Amino acid sequence: MNKSLLLAPVCCVISVAAFGQGQALTGQVLDPTGRPLVGATVVEKGTNNGTGTGGDGRFTLKARTAQPRLVVSSIGFAPQEVSADGGSITVRLAEASTSLGGVEVVGSRSQNRSITDSPSPVDIIDVRNVTTKTGQLDVNQLLQFVAPSFNSNRQTGSDGADHVDPATLRGLGPDQTLVLINGKRQHQSALVNLFGTRGRGNTGTDLNVIPAAAIERIEVLRDGASAQYGSDAIAGVINIVLKRSTKELTANVNYGAYDAKYRFDDRDFDGGNFNANVNYGGAIGEKGSFINATLDYNRREHTQRANVPAPDGRLRREYGDPRVTNTSAYVNSKFALSDKAHIYVFGGGNKRRGDSYAWTRFADDDRNVPAIYPNGFDPIITSDIWDVSAVAGVRATVGGWDLDLSNDFGSNRFEYGVRNSLNSSLGASPRITEFDAGGFQLQQNVVNLGLTRNYKTVLEGLNLAAGAEWRRERYSLFAGEETSYANYDPAGTPDSLRRAAGAQGFPGYQPSDAIKATRDNIGIYADAELNVTVRWLLEAALRYENYSDFGGTLNYKAATRYNLTDFLTVRGTYSTGFRAPSLAQINFNSTVTNFIGGQPVEVLLARNNSPVTQKLGIPSLKQETSNNANIGLTSRIGSNLSLTLDGYYIKVKDRVVLTTQFSADDPVIGADLRALNVGQAQFFANAADTRSLGLDVVLSHTATLGTGRLNSTLAANFNHLKIDRVRTSGRLAGREEEFFGAREQAFVKASAPPSKINLTFDYQVGRFGALARFVRFDKITLINWDGQPDNYEARVTTDLTLNYAVTNNLQFIVGGSNLFNRYPTLFNPQLTESGGAWDPVQMGSNGRFYFAKLQARF
C-alpha cells in the first residue's frame, strides 16, 4: 500500500468549501440543587457537533442548524433535550431516579448518586468521544490507551490467547475484574490462558465481543467490590452501558494499517484493519420505550514481524498478530408497561474467526515430513468462537421500592482447528494437513432480584438496597478428531524412530480430556448509603454467597466521603473480597502422548481432581480472598482544574496459578508419575499470596484557546506488586522455587508496568479538532527460557488525530498511533515465550499505525 492512499482523503477534506458559521450558543448546566455540573455533555441533536461543560458548568457551542436543539446529559442525571434559539441557556438536570433506572452508575445502587459523589474512584469513558478521536477500534485497545489502571495487549505465539486478549485492572489477573453490561453480570470466556506473557493460568471476560459502536459509555470502578457484586470483583468492576439514543442513525467506516518497518517481505504496510458499523435507535410511543440496535463488522489482517534472526541464523518465517474477523449484532431496548413499570431486553451475539501463527517447523525438523513440506512449514492455529448473551427483566415501583427482576444468559464456545500442518506419525500418506482439534464451552445463567429505596427525609438522605441472585454455570471440554491427537506409528517401533503424535502446532484434545461440569451459586446482599449531612456520606455493604463445589463466603465493604470544602473532598473504602476458581481452572485437562521405551507416556496439564493431583496431594481449588483499602481525594482547583488522587492496597491470598512442569525424573515425585504412566505434569493450585500498593492520579484542565476549547488530561497509575508467599502442599511441600518459580512469578508481576502515564491534549475549534496523546509505559522484566532476565525498557508512544466536520452530519478523521514507530526492546527469538524478537508487552509490538475514519450521524 502506498502512503499517498492514506493521505488522499485529507486533501479532499481541505478542498471542501468553507461553511457559514452558525449562531454561538452559551449556557450553564446545573444539578438539582443549583450547583454547576462539570463535564456534562452538550450535543446539537442530529449532528456531530458537541462540547462539554467546564469547571463552572458553562459551555460555548457554535450551532450548525437554523433551529438547534441541544441534548444535555451527565452521569447520574436524566438527559434533557432543550431548544436553543440564541442567547444564554440554563439547564437544570433532574436526578436519575426520575427515569426508573435509566442511568447505571457502577459502585452504587443509589439512583440519586452522581459520579462526583462516589466514595470509590470511578472512571467514566465516553465511547463516542474516544472512537472519534483515537485510532483504536476494539474495546480492549480503547481502554488500554485511555485508562491508566487498565492493561491489555495483543498476544502472539500464545495459542488461544492470540484470539482473546487478556485484560487486567491495577495489575491483577484478568479473572479478578468483574464485567457488567447495563449493570448485569457478563459471562466469562471459556478459554483459560496457558501460554504467553499475560494472564497465564487465568480465565477472563472477552470485552471485544461487544462492538464499540453499541456502547454509550464505560464505567471503570477502581476498587474492590465483591461485597456489592460478588465473585471476580477483587480488582474492580467494568460496567459497559449500551446505547439508548433514539431518532438517530450513526454509521462509521474505519480503516488503518501498520507501517511494516520490521517486515519479512517488501510490503510497505500490513495488519490492515477494516471496520464498518451502523447504529439506530427508534422511540416507541410516548413513555420512553425504545429499541437501539447495532451491526458491526471488523476484519484485522496478520502483521509480519519475523525479521530478527536467532543466533543460529534461522528466521521464523511467520510471526505477528493473528488474522481475526468479528461480526457482531447487539440490541438494547425498553418497553413501558405503565408510568411505574417497564420491561427491558438487551444482548447480542459475536462470531469470531481467527488464524494465528505457531512456531516454524524447519525443513530438517524431525517433526516435519519433507514429502509434504520440503521447505518446512508454519502451522496455523484457527479459532471459531461463538459468543451470545441475552438479558430480560422488569423494573417497577412497588410500595415505594424500586424492584428489578431479571434473567441473564450467556454462552462462549471456542473451537480450535489446525491447518498448514501435519501429524508426522501418519507419514506422507494420507496427506492430511487440516485438523479439528476440539475445544470448550462455558455457559452461565443468572436470575437476579434487586430492591432499592431512597428515603429523602432520613437525615440528608438514606438509600437501602437488598437482593438475591442464583447462578448456574456449565463447562464442557470436547475432543478433537482422532488424527489431531493420535500416534500412528506401528506397534514395536523403536523410540528413536517414533514420530511426534498429533497435529503440529496444537495437538487436539483427547477423549480422556473431555468433561462436562456444572455448579450452582446462591448469593444474598444488602447495602446502605446514608448522607449524614450534606457533606458527609457513609456506605456499607454485606454479601453472602454459597457455591455447590466449595462452600460459602461472607464479604463486607465500608466506605465514606466527606466534602471538606466546596472544592475539596476526601474519600476512603475498606473491603474484603473473593474470587471463585473458574470451572475451566477446576476442570481443564490437556494430554499429549509421547512414547518412551515403546510405551505411551502422557504429558499432562492435569485437572484439579485427577488421579495425578490426588496422588501428589494437590488440594482441591478454593476461592481466592482479598483485603482492599482505598484512600483518596478529589479537588476542583479554581473553575477549570480538577484533581483526583487515590492510593490503594490490595492483598490477595491463595491466588490460583499454573505451576511449573514436573517430570518423571523428579527425585521426589518421579516414581509416582511413572506409576501413573505420566512423563510430565503441571497443575492449577492456590499457590501464591500477593500484595499490591499503588496510586491513581487524574488531573484535568479546561481552557479557552483563541475561539476554541482545549481540554488537557494527565492520568497515571503507579503500581507495585509483590509476591509475599508461595504455598506448596502434599508431596511437593517445601519446594516453593520449583513449584512456582522465578519465571512464573515474573509473568504475574508483568501484568502491568510499574507505571503508566497518559498525557492528552484535545482541542476543538469550530468544525476542526485535534488530539495529541503521549503514553509512557514503564520497564518490565521477564525471564527467558535460559532463566535469564529480559529487561524491557520504558517506552513512550505518541498519537495524533485530526478531525473535521465536512457537513453537519458528516465527519472525517485521520491520524496515527505510535507516530515515532517505537518498538519494545529486542531479544533472542529462540528464548522468548512467544518465539519472536520480543514478548507481547503493553505498548504493543507492531509499530506505527495510520488510520482514517468517516462518521455519519443523522
Automatic annotation (TrEMBL):
Compartments, record wording: Cell outer membrane
Superkingdom of the organism of origin: Bacteria
Swiss-Prot/TrEMBL keywords: Cell outer membrane, Membrane, Receptor, Signal, TonB box, Transmembrane, Transmembrane beta strand, Transport
Residues in the signal sequence: 1-20
Membrane topology: Multi-pass membrane protein
TonB-dependent receptor plug domain: residues covered: 116-237
Domain annotation TonB-dependent receptor-like beta-barrel: ranges: 349-819
Similarity comment: Belongs to the TonB-dependent receptor family.
Protein name: TonB-dependent receptor
Annotated source species: Hymenobacter crusticola
